[in-house]
């Protein structure tokens, strides 16, 4: 049976995971609104210039936070790709 210290660590991890899920949900609510805006204004679903700027910004933030910049870029790229997929679907519905 895990000891109390391990249980406290796990509780903290569970709390952080819950916060991440809520933050991602909020982020996707906003990106869905962006996608709807882009679709109704005939803007492309992807913005490579913004994506590259965001990746560079978040790599720098990751480095400052002692988080592997490669990991942060992979994580952000996964999110961006999903957002673009949503934006394409919204565009195709119009």
From TrEMBL:
This is chorismate mutase. The keyword Mitochondrion does not apply. Residues 1-91 form the Chorismate mutase domain. It comes from Sphingomonas psychrotolerans. GO terms for molecular function: chorismate mutase activity. Its EC number is 5.4.99.5. Pfam families: CM_2. One of its GO terms (biological process) is salicylic acid biosynthetic process. Keywords: Isomerase. It comes from the Bacteria.
């Amino acid at each position: 049976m895990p000891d109390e210290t391990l249980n406290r660590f796990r509780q903290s991890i569970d709390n952080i995971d819950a916060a991440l899920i809520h933050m991602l949900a909020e982020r996707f609510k906003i990106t869905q609104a962006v996608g709807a805006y882009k679709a109704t204004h005939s803007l492309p679903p992807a913005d490579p210039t913004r994506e590259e700027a965001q990746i560079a910004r978040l790599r720098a933030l990751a480095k400052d936070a002692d988080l592997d910049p490669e990991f942060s870029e992979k994580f952000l790229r996964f999110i961006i790709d999903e957002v673009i997929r949503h934006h394409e679907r919204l565009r195709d519905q119009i």
